[in-house]
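Q: How would the structure tokens look for this protein?
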Amino acid sequence: MSEEKITSNPEDQGVDNEKEQVLESETSRSVPRKHIEKRPSLLDRLMRRGSETKEKENSTPPALETEDELPPLSDLKLVGYKATTRRRLLGSELAHNIRNLVPRRLQLASEWDLVYSMEQDGISLRSLYRNNDRDQQVAQMKRQRKTADTGYASSVVNSMVGGHGYHNEIRRPVGYVLVIQDSTGAIFGSYLNENLRLMEHKRYYGNGECFLWKCERTGDGSMRFKAFVYTGINDNIIYSNSQFIAIGSSGGHNGIWIDKSLCSGVSAYCETFGNEVLCGSSHTGGPPPHSKEGRFEIIGLEVWRIGDP
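A: Here is the predicted structure in token form.
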């Protein structure tokens, strides 16, 4: 019997090789490869930390920053009127309108203090300046506290902490509200970020937080509050000396000008506040409608302090 020699067909070998390759690829896909996690380098960690810090800086501030989310203001108390005071110029509604425009740090003050009243303190520019002096106000608060203190122990404690502590404290910003009533019954005034004082040399003071305001009667008899804020055109905000008080000035005209007798004044348009004439109008004296200047007679004047001196 002769032996048969079996030879492989090249085509069959090619098919077998393809099958082996397919089998190997399927096997490699079925067995997952172990993932080796690369440890970040020091440079990678520093760059990641820097990007996180930048994202925090560019992130939107919390919702509490919006006015809608701020807590409501507490009720405002006006302190200083005597029981016998008949002419009270500042009411709660007017004070509320002014309060909405003062700097937010002062809106939180729950009390406004009457530092000068023409009816209570007399008609005197010198008295007005003295009562507006912050050192004078601190001294008055000390006297009030001393009256309220009772007993030996209380006086000892106060002396140990340095009196009442006012001279050791950093003075916080305060504001002042000037209120005027003229002979027509109109009420107007200004908010000032500094106290009125006697200036020896001509130098304006105050900043852009100051504004003028007025209450005007509408056709239905109700009162409408209008405010005129700082325009930034000039810095002629407050100037006061022994002869007059001027608030806002341009071209020789003042938003409010009060003479040294505290009996009369002038209100005119000024570029500092872009205001209307503030005083009232009547057939007996006040400015006609749309006038650029008006003279007035003062029958009441008050200055209120917002915040502790």
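Residues 160-168 have pLDDT under 50 and may be disordered.

The longest strand covers residues 293-306.

Upvote if useful.
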